[in-house]
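From: lab user (bench 3)
To: helpdesk
Subject: output format question, protein + pyridoxal-5'-phosphate

Hello, I'm new to running complex predictions and I'm not sure whether the block I got back is the full result or only part of it. Here's what I submitted:
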Amino acid sequence: MTYSETSVPAAGKLAAEERSFDTIHDRSQFGSAKWANQWDEFSPRVQGDGLVSLWTADMDFRAPEPVIARLREAVDHGIYGYTKRDPAHYDIVKSWFERRHGWSVGVETLLPAPAIMPSVAAILRTFTQPGDGVIVQAPVYSPYFQVIRDNGRNLLINRLKLVNGAYELDLDDFERQAASGARAFLLCNPHNPAGKAWTREELECLDALCERYGILVISDDIHCDIRLNDRPHIVYSSISDGAAARSFICTAPTKTFNLAGVPAATLSVADPKRREELFQVMQASFMLNANYFGRLALEIAYTSGDPWLEALTPYVRENVRLVCDVAASGLPGVLPMRPDASFLVWLDARELDARVDGVHRFFVERAGVNLYDGRVYGPGGEGFIRLNVGCPRSVLAQALERMTSALRSL
Ligand SMILES: Cc1ncc(COP(=O)(O)O)c(C=O)c1O
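Helpdesk reply: Thanks, we reran it on our side. This is the complete output you should expect:
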């Protein structure tokens, strides 16, 4: 089944207030990392006061109303004991991926997981040995570096090639890394920070090399659902039986529905032996009890969240357009990369970076806008900044206005 053949409920069925992503919510009171506790490796003293905060990857929107209602019921119930994921969740997850992405995943391949990164760590610890090489494609989501290094594996960086303002694979370099002792490849699909959805052809090229060098593929699909153009999300394991056999697909509703604080994830492991082995390791690590709220949020989001997502997507798309328009007219030296998916915009600010001696610090100090410093994303991120457009348009407009004024006064 393809996405267009499905009967996704229309956005019009949402209550008007729920469709309004324009409302500004004060997020400072509940310890929000994005608003109350701002820091990163390069700017440890960035503080929230007066800053417009467009950095870490959650959104400033309320979750879908059915999710909130269910969580409210659970809060009011008042007993927050141990929970397990319901076996019915496998059908719910299958149905979600079938209707949103045309991926017909076998329910028997699915495993419950607490979140994406603990799962990546568990997979690495189960199927690779200390010292084994693990490939990542930089610039990339920085905890990838950490999960590889902190688990004693050897980080192998395959730099993406920047061609005419867009990223392309460097397959020659990938092969060099593959031949240098790689045992696993941690794929970000779609890619964070650039929001690039890898094509079937690109994934097939990577898979041919992974097959040749006996490399396992851990695919992190957390950003797959917010699709901003008609490029489909291709799930790695759907490209061939061989790709399915050597891959681990990691999914979660947390980015899609803004549920990072109530996490739950689902893995698909097609190879039965590896699935059993991973299950045993996760069990031995006590990873299988579900988060009480995360379990409920996943269930309701995947069953009732389509109208909300249908309303969110054009809003995010319009925010991306605003960034591109303002950058073209008022941010000389800042070139946005249009994402295929996600609510993140990767800005090539290398020219400005050189002019102002550090573009991230410049926008924090001179504009009062906190973006993510591209250096966090590793080699190739220098001089870039990542802007999170998952916020009310007026907040984004204010940030862009401040950035424009700061540049004007240079
Ligand atoms: C690509 C990517 N993977 C994983 C995560 C985090 O996932 P989790 O919180 O489920 O570990 C993020 C969060 O920003 C992300 O961008």
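A quick orientation on your result: The two ends are 54 Å apart (CA to CA). Let us know if anything else is unclear.
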